[in-house]
Every structure is written in structure tokens, then in C-alpha cells.
Amino acid sequence: MTAEPRAAADRRTFIPLDPSLAPPGTRAFRDAGGIPADRWHADQNGETLVPTHCCFCGVQCGMYLRVDHGGKVFGVEPRNHDINRMRLCPKGINAYQQVNHPDRLTAPLMRRSRDEEFREVSWEEALDFTVSEIRRIQQTYGNDAFGLLGGASLFSEKTYLVGKFARVALKSRHVDYNGRLCMVSAAGANKLAFGIDRAGNPFSDILLTDCLLIAGSNVGECFPVMTQYVWGARDRGASLIVVDPRETAIARTADIHVALKPGTDSAFFTSVLNVVIAEGLTDENYLAAHATGWEEVKAKAAEYPPSRAAAICGIPAEQIVQVARAFARAPKAMAWHARGIEHHSQGVENCLSVINLCAATGHIGKPGAGYGTITGQGNGQGGREHGQKSDLLPGGRSITNPEHRRQICEIWGIEESELPPAGTSMMEMVWQMRRREIRGLIGICNNPFVSLPNYGVVKEGYDATEFHAQFDFFLSETAANAHVVLPVTTWAEDEGVMANAEARVVKHNKAQDPPPGVRTDTWVMCELARRLGAGGKFDFPDSRSVFEELRTASAGTVNDYYGITYERLEETGGIAWPCPTTDHPGTPRLFEDGRTYHPDGKIHLQVVEWHPPMDPYDDEFPMSLTTGRTVAHFLSGNQTRRLGALVEQTPRPWAEIHPSHGFRNGEPVRIVTRRGSEVFPALVTEAIRPDTVFVPYHWPVPTAANALTIDALDPRSKIPEYKVCACRVEHADRIDEVPAPPVAPGHVAYPETQVSRTDPLPPTSPQGRGTSERS
């Protein structure tokens, strides 16, 4: 190579970083890309572009919804917001289609017994029946006999109302939400170690790192647009380590792919720490100044040499050494993780083991160095901050802390004795329903018949309730089992805020009016509260009025939103909390001054002890079943299984299995666990461990992965152990059929979503099959 081409290549390699992509710290933070709505206009006459964000995952990509002259959403355009820089994934591109979908619920559905068929009724009749059943159950069995389950895809204003409605209007301790199935292990670990529950760094810091470790996250499919940050880091020379039993799309590009056995993460990370200590790669000055508990953690790490961890994890011992050296020797290193290490009965310990590694190497609180948790749902971060979690009050306050209780009671205008104690978790509430301790339930923005583990137990629990009402805009599998279904708005028919995986609060804007007969979740909760005699505490005409109370309720807490206003969000494109005043820039990067949110300002390192998964292996069940997402679908699939392009891309679930088991692609494979069995088409690939089988979880019975998973819980976070249960595989004669999504009486299943649904073949790759590849 001549000198001139070499110089040109060097210039390409070291392109100066765009400062708007890498916001500096809190003292000079400027969030680029969030241009006010009034600066935008459409190119077509009669068309309006409404700036908003995607309704799906925790990346929260910016987009424009295209609105026609009649005020209807009819399309989408990517938005040059600094989160996504014009990129959208398949779900984001198709999200707009749900707004005016023919399956939309537009009238309340009601029946007095599950033996009856639904009939459309007026709002007056539906609300009267709902309130009469709430009163009957609570007067007969006590206030705690009625519960409420919320959702982490709701705007923060609505999640705030869920918690307040349960405790002030229902006067029940039993409230929780489907984020219990998502981020709570990371939340528990973050609170223990740092005294704050959120990612420590913005996505843009990934661009500055020298070594990126991704554990238990199929970024390419679950958070596709986040991949741009990974590629940006790689373009600047960063090494990539991926810890995952499957060779996912992102793992295929890694410098080191650790394909460990499911359920062994904490043993692996503690062993990595063992090597870091043995080779003198710890940052002792940082630990001495900023951490407690180091000697205890160090002593426990000594019990996990690579030889022991290799045997537990089913990987080469040398790979543990390689990861330790790559991460600890890097000038700047980051670790990000998601459900793959969190969906375990030791989920909190798994997350703590990653924190211990980051702290021991001094990779905390710096540009390009830190620790992050990737939120699954759109408001998975904001959804747990302001009161719908069973043990928390607004602002992340503890419901067991007397001072926190006093503060909230003063804001809500109630006596402290009126505020119920902590409730139980989502899965525990189902067990209580099964035991008839909880006899009535309202569900909002969740679909437990698909999303909760051990479907048989879930169905028994819901069937045991005397009354169940569900809010939704489609008839989900769970809503189809209810007594009352209340039709509510999509994200495009209301306004509100969400906090993405970076803890950046972003503003969603209303793009169209809801269909006639549809109400906002806010209106429904406030109207129910009025009929229950608590209307004076729920005088909220719109989301903005709720947000103003939320700001006040969070003021002075760790989760401080007080300085965030709708106007500031429109101007900036997003503000990371805590943000205590309206002239505060927000806090995109935590711990820059070396202090955490514990009173002593230090990281409280925690000793981690690995233990086997709760579902034991034996000769009858020798393999591991693990579950996860696919790029075309989202969570329970109630939205995405109705969108034709997404169904065509990934029409059905499959069983990803190693060729050593003797299956051919597309052959029926029966997966058997202690909960039951189901038959899927085989996707035969060497990209998965021979002792592991993978099934995506977006479909209902009889093709539901969660009919097979175990309902064991982490004792601290109460998250289910979705990511590992014992199983065996067998040859079968025929593949179980995928059911059509439920629809309201008088409707037929939308034909465009049924074309591919009965296709017996699996996708040609884990990321699905496009239309051009169909026969």
C-alpha cells in the first residue's frame, strides 16, 4: 500500500465524533435532534406530520405519523431524532397500522358470566356493572380481595394513575404491573449497588467505548435500532463480547461469543472477576475511594476459578480468561444486559455479578465506561418509577418507609392510615386469585394469558375470579376471558411521556382523535374513581394535568421529574432524569463525580453465590428450554400478530435446535417440560448449544412457549425464570396450529394476517423470512 491510500484509510478510521451523538455530562448536556413540532411540515398538501416516538421497545425511536386531511393516521416516516437517526425497525415501520385497524374495539363488551357470549353495551352499563362488582366483592371479602394489574407500555401519566387508583379509589394493597416480567431484577440490583434504578450511561457513550460487553440481549432482534451504536463503537475499534447461549445476529459479529449454558451467568461473571483479581487488573484506587464490600466480594470470587466455572457453564476455561483480559485491560469498557440474565430465579444476583465486574475494573461513570440495562417495553423504565409497582410509591419511594408514605399521603390528600401496605407481585397475585384470596381484578395494558409462565396455572387463576375487567384496544387472549372489556386509545390517540432505556424522558404527541366509543385510560380510571366516591382525588381532564401532579409527587426524590415539562421535552427531544429544576439540563450519565445515590455515596458491592435453576435436570428432562423475542413481534403479540407484514415475516413460533438431535428443518419437534408439551417446526442450526432449545414466546396456546415455562420466581425481584427450564425433545407427527387472534363479536379475523399463520415451516433464519423468500 502506498502512503497516500494509507493516510486516506486513517482519515476514515478516525472521523471526529459528532458531538450531538455523544452528549457530554450533566454540566454541559445538550440533547440534539429534538426539534419542536411547529418547525415541521409535510411535503403533501392536506397531510400533517406529527412528531412522536414508537410505541414498542425501550429504545423509543423518534418517528413522524402521517395524518391525512380527515385527521386519520395513514403512514409513518422516520425522524432524525438523535436516539435513532432516521432508523426504524420492522415493528416501528408497521406500528401505525394498528391505529385504524379493523380489529379495533370501539364499544364496551360485557357478559355477566363466562358461560355467556360477549355483547356490545353502552359505557354507562359497562361502568355501572364494573363498579357494582367492585363494591360487592370488597364489601363481602374486604378491600384487598380486588386487585389491579397495569402495564409498562402505558405513558407515565397513566402508570401514575394506576398506582393512585388502586390505593386511593380501590383502597387495595394489590397492584402490580407487567414490568414485573421485564426489568425488576436489574432494578433490584441497581438499587442495592447504586441506590438508584436506571442505566448509568446514555446510548451515545457506547460510541466512545473500547470494549463493549453485551450479556443476555439479542440486540439485533429485540432492539434493532440500538445496533447502530454497537456498529459505531466497532467502527472506532472497540472489541465486542457477547454472552448468550445462542449465536444471535449480534453474537456472530463478536470478538468473543460466550455460549454458556442457560442459568449459569453469575458463575461466569464471578469467575471473570476471579481472573481480573488474579492478574492484578483491578482498580484498587477506585475501589478504595468509591466502594464498600470489596473484601467480601473478593473472597467469594476466589471460590470461582475458571476451571470450576467452565464446568458449571459448559464453556472453555480459556474463554473466561479472554473475557477478563479484554474487559479489564480496555481503557474504557461498558457492560449492557437485558432479559437473558434477568429472567432467572437468580436474576438479581446475575445483574450484581456484572456490576461487581464493572466496579472492580473502575469502569463506572465515565464517557465510554459504565453499566446499562436495556429496557424491554417502551416505558419499562418510566413504568416502574411512579407507583404501579406493588412496593413503590411515586418518585421511586418505598411504600414501607414511613416518611415516604407521609409525603405521598400529603400530596394525595389522604390520611396515612388510609394508604394500604405493600402488595404482592404479578405472578403471586395470580396464585392468590387461584386460592380465591383475590376475587376481582382490573387489567390494563397486559396480556397474561400469553406473557406469564405456566399457562395452566394462569388460566386457573383468572377463571377463579368472580369478576374481571380488562382495558385494551384489541381483544387480547386475556380480555377474551374477562367479564367486561373497555375499549381504550392507542398511543397515537393521546399524549404523554415515556422514559426509555437511557432514562431519557420523551414526549409522545397525539396524532388523531380516537374512534367514536373509545376512551382514554385516564378518562376510564377517573370515571371509575368518581363512581367509587373518590372523584375529588381524580380531577384530571387530560394527561398534562396528571403530569403536573406527577412532577410534584416526584420532586426531591431520586426519580426527580420536577424540572421536566412538556414544553422542555418538545424543545430538547428528551431529558434524562433526575432533573430537579426547570433550568437543570438533566442527568444523562450517572456517577461522574464518583458518588452513587446511597447516603455514603459509595457503590455497595454485593456477594453473589451461584445456584442451579429451579427446574432440575434429570434423565427425563436433560435439556434446557429458553425463550425470547423475534424481530417481527412484540411481547404477547396482541398488536403485532394483527399486522400483515409482520405476520408474513414471522407467521409462527419454531423450535431452534442443534443438528445433533437428528431433526431436519421443518420437521415436527415436541418439547416436553414438567408443565406440558407442544409441537413446533424445527429450525435446525449450529447457532445454539446442543443441550438447549429456543422458542419465541409471542403466541398463545397451543403454540405458547409460556405454557411450558416454570413459574419459579427470584426471591427478591419476583421475576419469573423464563430463560431456563428442564425439557426433552421428541419426534412428533404434526405441528400444532397457530390460533387466530381473538376479535370482538360480529368481527372476523383480519384476512391479511391469516395468510401466513398456518405455514408449517420455520423461518430460514432466527430473524424471520421476508416476502421475497416465500414460495
From TrEMBL:
Keywords: 4Fe-4S, Iron, Iron-sulfur, Metal-binding. The keyword Iron applies. The keyword Iron applies. Gene3D superfamilies: 2.40.40.20, 3.40.50.740, ADC-like domains (2.20.25.90), Dimethylsulfoxide Reductase, domain 2 (3.40.228.10). It comes from the Bacteria. Residues 1-22, 378-399, 737-775 are annotated as: Disordered. Residues 766-775 have a biased composition (Polar residues). Residues 47-103 form the 4Fe-4S Mo/W bis-MGD-type domain. This is Nitrite reductase. It comes from Streptomyces rhizosphaericola.
